[in-house]
Amino acid sequence: MNVELVAGQELPVALHTLNQGAVWACLVGGGANPDLEDRVLEEAQEEWPHTTRMHDKIRKALAPEAKCLWFLCRKFFFSLNVAEKDGECYQRPGHDRCYHHHMYMGRLFMLDTRHHTALTRARMPRALEVYSNTWTHIARTPKGLWGWGTNEEGQLGFKSASNLFVNPTRLNFPSCPNIAALEASLPPWEKHRMVTAVSIYEYQTFILTPAGTVMAGNKANWFTGEADEDNRKLFNPVAVPSGFVPDHIMHAGLLNATTVILSMGDRQMISGRNDYGQLGLGHDDGMSGFVDLPFRVDRIITSETRFFTVFLSGRQLLFAGEVPFHIAQSGLLPGFSERDKCLTATPLRFPERVKGFWGEYDRMVWVTEGVTHYCHRGNLTMVPIEATAFNVEDPLRFCDSTGQWFKVVGESDGVAELVECEAPIRREDIIPVSVDPSPQS
User: What InterPro entries does the record point to (predicted)?
Assistant: First the structure.
């Protein structure tokens, strides 16, 4: 523990003289419980308070009596504290399972309550970075990419049974010769240099590399075109013009309704679901590859609807897709009625500067100077604070810039009456924007 050795002195060969990463891995692998404060169980109980069977599995896997191993010597406890400070945790509770992993110095231990009875070492090279979405995970390692977890739609680039937990598996690219050649050209312990970015979302995986971008998973034909029957569950190159090598990706939307934008410098290309014209391309034709984006996008704002998209473009919010009732009633999209298709990305027209925005199919929130506007099913409520977050459950609550939560207890002349309250379990963060007011005719 940072004790300097004199000339000629060597450390004894013992467990406590290993570095803290090795000590931590040895103890966790031997059954020590690193969750001294029971955070894994508490978070699962907060998210899913009635799934007691899952809670019991967590208690058995992370037994209280297994915490005592960290107190056998100071080096063990020191290693635990450093791992807590510098390590990385990920957790996803669900109605029938909870997945948790804890990684320190590249050594990753995972617990999926449907498939494991204890924290289990991921059998793969030490990870440099882990990309996760719900129950699917990919690690970037010096020996290449490794994937594990759920693979129902082939998002890990290979076929497997949909109901199984896939153990860490080396990812390969037999349908992508350029990617395979790039990886083969790198030294044995520098395969991580192949990857520019990874995006996993809604059973889809995109991997960006200097040799091009590949994709696997749900609705792959929107992005890669139609692949051969034998290759549909594998990684395939995305359909983009020759020479277009993306360095950035935006990936948002619901299952079966994702929108993806790839960027190479200032050039952007888009694909995804488009049956309501929600890509803003001037048509509602289906997609079988990426096309040039006719407007600049800084962020995809909406992700909780299949029918429309709101894009942040500079100091404007652009709408495309089927017009819902609350937007038609709000007056923010003049000339369009409910269920009209707005095929070309069109600016929402706000009478004053907008500081924050959030939207989905049946409600929308935007923040102006001193006021939050909450529009739900055509009913507009003015909330007299600049909210940074809110919840969509009853009672309706808003959080101000100091972190204080307020619940709506009444309404007078369209203005909400608020009282202080506790924070809700679930929240929606309002996205900070800076949108200019539209000239009023």
Answer: RCC1/BLIP-II
pLDDT tens-digit map of 55-103: 999 999 999 999 999 999 999 999 999 999 999 999 999 988 999 999 9
Which residues, other chains included, contact 73 with Cβ-Cβ below 8 Å and sequence gap of 6+?
16
Specify if 382 maps to a domain. yes
* CATH number of domain containing 392: 2.40.10
What the block records as the tokens of 366 is 């935007």
Side-chain-facing half-sphere of 324: CA atoms under 13 Å: 21
- pLDDT greater than 70 at residue 1: no
Query: Is 2 contained in some domain?
Result: no
What CA–CA distances, in Å, run from 63 to 33, 53, 67, 174? 7, 15, 7, 43
Residue 169 φ then ψ, to 5°: -135, 135
The strand pairing partners of 368, in sequence order, are 371
Position 374 in a domain: yes
Tokens of 45: 């109980």
pLDDT tens figures, 180-223: 999 999 999 999 999 999 999 999 999 999 999 999 999 999 99
SS (H, E, C) the chain: CCCCCCCCCCCCCCHHHCCHHHHHHHHHHCCCCCCCCCHHHHHHHHHCCCCHHHHHHHHHHCCHHHHHHHHCCHHHHHHHHHHHHHCEEEEEECCCCEEEEEEECCEEEEEECCCCCCCEECCCCCCCEEEEECCEEEEEECCEEEEEECCCCCCCCCCCCCCCCEEEEECCCCCCHHHHHHHHHCCCCCHHHHCCEEEEECCEEEEEECCEEEEEECCCHHHHCCCCHHHCCCCEECCCCCCCCCCEEEEEEECCEEEEEEEECCEEEEEECCCCCCCCECCCCCCCCCEECCCCCCEECCCCCCCEEEEEECCEEEEEEECCHHHHHHCCCCCCCCCCEEEEEEECCCCCCEEEEEEECCEEEEEECCEEEEEECCEEEEECCCCCEEECCCCCEEECCCCCEEEEEEEECCEEEEEEECCCCCCEECEEEEECCCCCC
Position 355 in a domain:
yes
The residue segments making up the domain with residue 391 are 350-441
Can you state the angle between helices 74-86 and 20-29, rounded to 10 degrees? 100
